[in-house]
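Subgroup meeting minutes
Present: P.N., E.W., G.H.
Scribe: E.W.

1. P.N. recapped why we're keeping a running log of single-chain structure predictions: easier to compare across weeks, and new members can see raw inputs and outputs side by side.
2. G.H. added today's entry (154 aa).
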Amino acid sequence: MSLRALWTNFKDMEGLFAAAGERLMERQRAEFRPVPTELPLPERIERYCAQRARLLELIAPAARAARIREPFSAQLRKNRAWYLEIAREEIETLFAPELASAGQARREVLDALTVAATFAGWSMWRDELHLDVAGATAVLRRMVTALLPAGATA
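Output recorded in log:
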């Protein structure tokens, strides 16, 4: 695509960031397969972590690029908030019994799971610790397993 075609379609960078964010979310939705909530906890965790790894790898190039410009772009911050909201909703739905059994610690557990299962954690494992996808997925699985209350039932 030429620069001329780019600016013919987008009046400014914020418009481009909005369109790019929507397109990336469309790609994620196309790849997303809900994990059945009735599965036993270990299987839910396994399927959830495998899927999160695939989705995080899908968004990784865009997320890395956005991180650089995010402090200067309201749209990129809005895109990130949108992704975080969707990730939290999935965690709350899939692990509802376990979060409920956390009692007063529910919010802390949800916050910790959100960090572990979003690009912040993934980037640390992949970019800073130089783990491969399998290694990063294993760390994600261990964290999710450790964070969820052991006595909860599905």
